[in-house]
Amino acid sequence: MGDLRIERDVVIEAPVEVVWRTITEPDQIVKWFADRVELKLEPGGEGYMGFGEHHGGAVVVETVDPPKRFSFRWNHPAGEEPVPANSVLVEFNLTPRGAERTYLQVVESGDELLAWPDAEKDRYADEHNGGWADFLGRLGGLFVEHRTG
After folding, report:
1. Domain residues for 138?
2. Full-model pTM
3. Does any domain span residue 115?
């Protein structure tokens, strides 16, 4: 079994408050991440993130600390409350880099605690590692297009 913790980062050409809205507001999240988003932005808030016709699931917000940190849990069994042993934690950490740039780090962890076969954990980590690279590229591209277009 490989390293299951996923860490990705990007520097975005936008102020931290703008990036915060883009990663926490459903009408903004659909521009770079999920196709369908419902989200109650408060600790314990429930929501849904859908990816295409057949993929998606419930999310539960864990941390809301504007404009520095946002996290949620997902991939927990239907009908169960998400806890570290049955779900994956996704954390967004934002750090201003001057007035017009933001360093964003995304960490997805907890895969190793799930009651999945090792091969499934490895597959999940591989898919999500590549997926986060694509999603953060799209997110950064929103601001590059905006500034040059």
Report:
1. 6-23+65-148
2. 0.91
3. yes
